[in-house]
Amino acid sequence: MSTLHHDVVVALRRLRRAPIFTTGALLVLALALGVNTAIFTLVQGVILRPLPFRDPERLAALSTLRPDTDRGAWSLPNLLDYRAQSRSFEGIGAAFQWSANVTGGDEAERLQGMRVTANYFDLLGAEAHIGRTLTAADERAAVALLSDGLWRRRFGGDPAVLGRAMILNGDAFTVIGVLRPDFTPQIRDAEVIVPFETSSDPRRDNRALGFLRPIARLKPGVTMGQASEELTAITARLRKMYPETNGSDLSATAVPLAADLIGQTGDLLRRLSGAVVLLLLVACANLACLQLVQASGRTRELATRVALGATRTRIVRQLIVESLLLAAAGGLAGLLVARAGVAALLAISPATLPRANEVALDVYTVLFNAVLALGAGVVFGLAPAVHLSRAALAPGIGSGRRTAGSDGRRLRSVLIAVEVAVSMVLIVAAGLLARSFVSILSVDPGFTSAHVLSVRLSLPRTRYAHTSDIDRFYQDLVGRLHAIPGAREVAAANVVPLNGYYATADFEVEGDSLEPGQLPESHYRMVSSGYFRTLGVPLVRGRAFDDTDRANSTPVVIVNRTLARKHFGQDNPIGHRLIVHDAGTKTRVVEIVGVCGDIRHRGLDLDPPMEMFVPIAQVPDATSIWLANNMYWLVATDGPPLNVANAVRRAVAAVDPQVPASFVRSMDQWLESSVAARRFTLRLIVFFAIAALTLAAIGVYSVAASVVVMRTREIGIRAALGASPQGLTRWLVINGLFPVAAGMAAGLVMSVLASPLLSGMLYGIRPADPATLVAVSALFGATGLAAAYIPARRARRVDPIVALSVE
User: Fold this and answer.
1) Distance CA 528, CA 549 (A)
2) Which of 25, 387, 605, 716 falls between 20 and 30 A from 412, CA-CA?
3) Which residues contact 736 (CB under 8 A, 6 or more apart)?
4) Under a CB-based contact definition with an 8 Å cutoff, are residues 473 and 663 in contact?
5) Whether pLDDT at 85 is above 70
6) pTM of the predicted structure, to 2 decimals
């Protein structure tokens, strides 16, 4: 212990005598360890932290699958059949999106919520923060659970909220509990949860209407794979029994609930973790180089210690202690960087980041930081320590000459090559993502996002139970919206582009003979007559909707270019008729009157799906009543659309003060949110790449500078023999660029080999894009040249007489 204490004292003294080196090393470590800890904190909160439920590893999310669509929702009859026939689960429950207008207070508010089966919380094993959760006895009760955020925002965190009545969509619900702050709902941003009565729901007999997101709890000993196999067998039976709704291409699967809640964010964070580890590797190589440069003057010191009896093991231990002290101090500083980094990450992260409220520094992140700092200290300290211990035995105390073996040029060159190679990988990744992002932003979304405001309205069914009431509200609102100064066009639709929601319907071209269950699926839009003008969607053929398209006129439809091409080829689809299957139980025959351009509703990087548009005035009464609870209004303006947001809110309140205006956003904001995840990834990768490039440049500079110092005598000899200053500079630059060139070559190979890992994140560009590789190579070449040239210029000022007198 006394020996270790002595090593620590000596190491501290040594570090204090080299303030520039110590400060620089601490800054590099603080940055590298802090960024790694910040990213780990994000991964810990989103991915690694177990869900706050009982035995979360046994919780599964269930979904239907089709070859041409993402995981889909279940219908209520299918849910009941799976529940009755399954033997792998302790139980199956479900949730679905539900929104509510909260009235009765100072101001009406629109809340995102969900309805859940009565066994939902029993299956989760979730507990309330105050009060209780739902039980089987609550299936028909008008009770509600609040999120922690809603409880604090609307009720000030008052525990007396239990038993209080909330008016939701005109009905009174009794608050029975407040959920824990770390509760992660299946429906994003859900703030209020009420029970779903399966026994009397009108959709109980509609097998084609998928709206439920089921969850299940595995029985002990049952795996996800076994549960999925059982679901596949049940699906096969249901396909035979109900071929019209459960088509031959339908299947079902079970996945861990945690994976379902995280979605694609998990892959994104894992890629970022890999990138930040590369940055740490660059930092370690950089610090090893700096230590070798710093230790160039320690040869005599170490030789003296050896002469006094120090063993090689003792020398290595002393040098490792210095590295570990640096790493420990860097780790502490890294925690401060990580704290700020986590706040910055959450500030720039997309709004869709799951479990964001659980991201915070905790004991696990502190432990991770400590282990990482320890590992980094060993990594960047071991190789220089071993090298210096060997070098100390060679020269002797009285020798002032530096041999090739003692000055560590070869090892430093290897470390620089490693730095450059790893940095190349990061910068190539940043270049590919940047070019991909530019490609996405250049995609035509199919509509005009500038100068368009969107707002979502929900008319409570208790007050708008008839289409005549809904029509009066619409007519009054349209007049008031048109009267707003700067408003040019007004339209309505069931969804807006890029908002993440969509409705679909099966259809067939009249005259085709398709088997039930094999009908093509199209996105189904219900829009008002001014929709295409308001959003600037071009009409390719035919006409737009107008006031003659009423409930008592010929049912009409406008299809997009993709649907027209797939089903009519080069033929003119105008005048043809489609048979639209409304949730598989009703059919409507509609005549094609127009073809519009494609709109990228699902994302700028996804091909437009087949779409059909029908006028709101012609949808059935039952659909109109449902639509009134989920309607977006669009206002095209002369100036910035958000400037009229308050006027739109006042117009809505003037028609009905109990109808809140929610999701008040410009279409530019919807467009921005659709690429938010890509922008987040790009920002971080670019930051990592710039940091790696900077560290690599510092490494090249340090090696080039040390070469000038180490070879002062040789430079003097060359100058005395007639070498010109330009020739000396060129010779030193070429020597300095050798490790850079080797690292660039290795980096290019590594980038090409690693490029498939980015394939899912790229758009409009190949993973091994030649132009990006050439540009990054040119950037690195220029950076390396500058880093090597600056110290090489000092050789011009070397006096041969002085140089030859150097020991």
Assistant:
1) 10
2) 716
3) 700, 703, 704, 707, 784, 787, 788, 791, 792
4) no
5) yes
6) 0.81
